[in-house]
Amino acid sequence: MNIEQARIFALSQPYATEDMPFGDDWVVFRIGGKVFMHIQLDAPEPRIAIKLPPETGAELREHYDAVRPAWHMNKVHWNDIYLTAGELTDPQIQSLIEKSYTIVRNKLPRKTKEALEP
To answer: Is the torsion defined by CA of 90, 92, 97, 101 positive or negative?
Structure first.
């Protein structure tokens, strides 16, 4: 999976948005105003940062060199997924993006969730 494929997949999640609040080097993906994924465009290796349950992140870090604590993020909850390492398949990466999206969506305030639904 490349960065553009990760971007398209993230935006395919219901009500997902993207913006660049930190300048031209970072793309941030949100649901209800809350971040579920980051992409650092000028990173030496293509990677995404996603939120995962601490135990899931720890387990993935133990098994895959392509999963590491996220740079400049809370390292308990945020994980960098290196896209070109070849260890994780596209469906695995998509599943992790969905998991991050779901975690963030489920923690939104009730009023925000209601505003997202038609």
So the answer is: positive
* Alpha helix ranges (H) inside 1-118: 3-11, 54-63, 90-106, 110-116
Query: CB atoms < 10 A from the CB of 38, how many?
Result: 21
- CATH entry, 3-116, from 3.40.50.300, 3.40.50.1010, 3.90.1150.30, 1.20.1070.10: 3.90.1150.30
List pLDDT tens digits, range 9-54. Answer: 999 999 999 999 888 899 999 999 999 999 999 988 999 999 999 9
> Contact 49/38 with Cβ under 8 angstroms?
yes
Residue 24, SS3?
A: coil
Q: Report the distance separating Cα 30 and Cα 15, nearest Å.
A: 8
**CB-CB contact of 102 with 32 (8 Å):** no
